[in-house]
Design a protein that fits this description.
- The chain is mostly helical.
- It contains four helices and no strands.
- The protein has one domain.
- Helix 2 packs antiparallel against helix 4.
- The radius of gyration is 14 Å and the shape is globular.
C-alpha cells in the first residue's frame, strides 16, 4: 500500500518537512498555527484548510516513512 513512499528518499522528506513544513519560522510555523485553530474549532476558511494541508503534508509523509517499518503491513 505504501510502496510509493519507499521511492522518496528520506533526506528529501526531511528537507521538505524542515523548510515547507515549518515555514515561516517566525513568529510561529503555519502548521502549528493551523493546528491550534483546528483544535479551537476556528479552522473554517478554505485558505486556512489549504494552508494546513500544504504545510502538514511533508511532515505527515516523513512520519509515515519513519513509522512504516513498524507498521508491518502485508505486501
Amino acid at each position: 500500500m505504501l510502496r510509493w513512499l519507499d521511492k522518496i528518499p528520506l533526506y528529501m522528506l526531511v528537507i521538505a518537512a524542515l523548510t515547507l513544513g515549518l515555514a515561516p519560522f517566525l513568529p510561529q510555523p503555519h502548521v502549528l498555527e493551523k493546528l491550534q485553530m483546528l483544535l479551537a474549532g476556528s479552522l473554517t476558511q478554505l485558505i486556512d484548510i489549504f494552508d494546513l494541508i500544504l504545510h502538514g503534508t511533508p511532515i505527515a509523509l516523513l512520519v509515515l516513512k519513519l513509522a512504516k517499518p513498524k507498521l508491518k503491513t502485508p505486501e
